[in-house]
Design goal:
- By secondary structure, the protein is of the alpha/beta class.
- The chain folds into two domains: 169 residues, no CATH class; 143 residues, Glutaredoxin (3-Layer(aba) Sandwich).
- Strands 1-4-3-2-5-6 form a six-stranded mixed β-sheet.
- Helix 2 packs antiparallel against helix 6.
- It is elongated.
- It starts with a helix and ends with a helix.
Length: 324
């Protein structure tokens, strides 16, 4: 009888409506953070698409958002400062809802990345989800008593761990760039696009125009990171507000290239379609590979995560002043 009473007492304490809603709201925030973390590369690209963010800022903001959701979810789930956490959740959800309403039309088809790619939501469904979470947060603010004191070391440990996890799972590009550069295969000394005119199947026009400086991007039509690279290059070029001398070299077929444009959501740059022997003759084994060419000489070589926009602009902007 004593054990049964103890179990009932525990259930009565922990299975109250407020506690259930705390766990539910905290669980949603934790799930949202993990879903973004597992596709953090795509989440970075989603943020980079926003006009105000540079690449490094998008990388940093992605980790702060994921860490913030982990921290807030953990605080609610573990009943650490639940009333303050519910208030913070209310403010964050209100801000995100206003952003969604202003940034996109309700019912838009784009995934807002609230739950990464695990549960794609368009704007309308994301707003409805936020309103439901706001209702739960409002209920908690109404019902929860004043926060009980908790050991500070527990709260600090939770917050520190939550904000470190995203960077440990996927270190920021700007911290790892030198390491990525060291892993690249040696670049050829010289690449002349004139050699391609007779050896490759050429794109829309009879000849791809180019100047003395050009960013030459070797991409495979089936490669996930190549599609990410194309999306990043497209946003990078759009944010400069000018036409940059960028040329794509594809390994694939014409039909695959058409599908590549759609799946990568990339702007269409001048391109060649290359057969495999020619393609891998220049880049070695791995894709994507980007060469910064100046007067036929390879000045810099980049991969997806080692790409450096400022370096590229220093070389390409003089060429962009002249028509391609």
């Amino acid at each position: 009888m004593y054990k049964l009473r103890a179990v009932r007492s525990i259930l009565a304490h922990h299975c109250t409506p407020t506690r259930i809603f705390e766990v539910l709201l905290g669980g949603v925030f934790i799930f949202s953070a993990i879903a973004k973390l597992l596709v953090s590369g795509e989440f970075e690209l989603y943020l980079y698409h926003l006009p105000a963010l540079s690449w490094n800022m998008a990388v940093l903001c992605s980790r702060l958002l994921i860490g913030g959701e982990l921290a807030l979810g953990g605080l609610l789930f573990l009943n650490f400062h639940p009333r303050k956490s519910a208030l913070l959740a209310t403010l964050i959800l209100t801000g995100f809802t206003i952003y969604l309403l202003l940034a996109q039309q309700p019912g838009g088809l784009d995934n807002c990345f609230c739950f990464g790619t695990a549960l794609p939501l368009d704007t309308r469904h994301s707003v409805l989800k936020n309103l439901a979470m706001l209702a739960i947060a409002g209920f908690l603010l109404w019902k929860l008593p004043r926060d009980a004191r908790r050991p500070q070391w527990m709260v600090i440990s939770l917050l520190t761990g939550a904000f470190l996890i995203p960077s440990c799972f996927r270190p920021p590009d700007f911290m790892m760039r030198n390491w990525f550069l060291s892993q690249q295969e040696a670049a050829p000394d010289h690449i002349s696009l004139q050699l391609f005119d007779e050896a490759l199947v050429i794109s829309d026009s009879n000849r791809v125009a180019y100047g003395n400086e050009v960013l030459l991007c070797f991409l495979s039509t089936h490669c996930k990171y190549c599609k990410w690279t194309a999306q990043r290059i497209s946003d990078f070029s759009r944010k400069q507000g000018e036409q940059l001398p960028i040329v794509y070299i594809f390994n694939g077929t014409a039909n695959e290239v058409d599908q590549f444009w759609e799946e990568s959501h990339s702007a269409r740059f001048p391109y060649y379609i290359c057969t495999s022997p020619w393609f891998f003759r220049y880049i070695g084994k791995g894709v994507p590979v980007l060469f910064l060419i100046q007067n036929g000489q390879v000045v810099k070589q980049y991969g997806y995560r080692s790409f450096h926009g400022k370096e590229v602009l220093d070389y390409l902007r003089p060429a962009a002043e002249e028509p391609l």
